[in-house]
Write a structure and sequence with these properties.
By secondary structure, this protein is an alpha/beta fold. The protein is built from 11 helices and 11 strands. The structure holds 6-O-phosphono-beta-D-fructofuranose (F6P).
């Protein structure tokens, strides 16, 4: 029977993390379980930065972006000595179980802790949507909305000036933010890890679209694939469009979460507490076909991301 749960956020923050912290806190307290908020991810866990949470500790947080707990990346948590220091700190503070909100790197830490007797549940908190075992991660919808708002604005000015906007979006090694925003904004070209990067093919496509009478164009590029400024320059030289590059950057990580993210985070946070009450650990929560589900972290981190072929086929049919 668990008496005290810790909750932390780790890795890149994402809108909706606060809604998840709130749901964990409120559902645990309702079940008579104490809660501590752990500051700054695994670093705070190892250093004992534990804050006793009351119901009011999470008041008025559901609409705020970022994470009230702070987040950090601690690659050293993989080292046995650092991990053991964390286990000891949790035991010293009578924390029986932890809910970890973060990406797949954070999940590995949760699994390691579970193997050392501290049951942990992972919640997918990242804008990248790059975690298997869930259709959507917490923050993806908000980031997508931010991108769409920005690209719609870029389209207005591109249209006025016969330009091609080359827009870099985040996603780490996952193209979901790019392909979803590409479809939503009616982009002409999307470049992601799934499509690969063929510069000649991009230029040819833009020339072809220009011949069809297009007055402007939008190219959406996943980060870590090519230099968008360089591509914009090449577009200026090879086509009749003037190329302009925009890197959306960290603006995509901020902002008030959309209702979709708030509801998702709340459902997932409640599920994490249920799993811990059932005595489970080493599991991660997801949403599949609008059902909240869970699966072993070990399986989740070893699976390749499921294919988005249907989205790419759709995109090609809409240009
Ligand atoms: O994982 C979230 C993410 O925003 C990625 O999309 C991006 O590659 C990375 O984090 C950026 O990390 P940082 O904020 O440490 O620069």
């Amino acid at each position: 029977m668990i008496k005290k749960i810790g909750v932390l956020t780790s890795g890149g923050d994402s809108p909706g993390m606060n809604a998840a912290i709130r749901a964990v806190t409120r559902t645990a307290l309702m079940s008579g379980i104490e809660v501590v908020g752990i500051r700054d991810g695994y670093r705070g866990l190892v250093e004992g930065l534990y804050i006793p949470f009351k119901r009011s500790s999470v008041s008025e947080t559901i609409s705020s972006g970022g994470t009230i707990l702070g987040s950090a990346r601690l690659p050293e948590f993989k080292e046995e000595a650092v991990l053991m220091k964390g286990v000891e700190k949790l035991k010293e503070n009578n924390v029986d179980a932890v809910v970890v909100i973060g990406g797949d790197g954070s999940y590995r830490g949760a699994l390691a802790l579970t193997k050392h007797g501290i049951n942990c549940i992972g919640l997918p908190g990242t804008i990248d949507n790059d975690i298997e075992g869930t259709d959507f991660t917490i923050g993806f919808d908000t980031a997508l909305n931010t991108i769409v708002e920005c690209v719609d604005k870029l389209r207005d000015t591109s249209n006025s000036h016969h330009r091609c906007s080359v827009v870099e979006v985040m996603g780490n090694h996952c193209g979901d933010l790019a392909i979803y925003s590409g479809i939503s904004c009616g982009a002409e070209v999307v470049i992601t890890p799934e499509t690969g990067y063929d510069e000649e093919a991009v230029l040819e496509k833009l020339k072809y679209l220009e011949k069809l009478g297009k007055s402007h164009a939008i190219v959406i590029v996943s980060e870590k694939i090519c230099d968008v400024q360089n591509l914009a320059d090449k577009i200026s030289k090879a086509t009749g469009f003037a190329g302009r590059a925009t890197i959306l950057g960290h603006i995509q990580r901020g902002g008030s979460p959309t209702p979709t993210d708030r509801v998702l985070a709340s459902r997932m946070g409640a599920k994490a507490v249920e799993l811990l009450i059932e005595g489970k650990g080493g599991e991660c929560v997801g949403i599949k076909n609008n059902e909240i589900v869970s699966m072993p972290i070990e399986e989740c981190v070893s699976l390749p991301r499921s294919s988005r072929k249907e989205f790419y086929r759709l995109f090609d049919r809409l240009v």
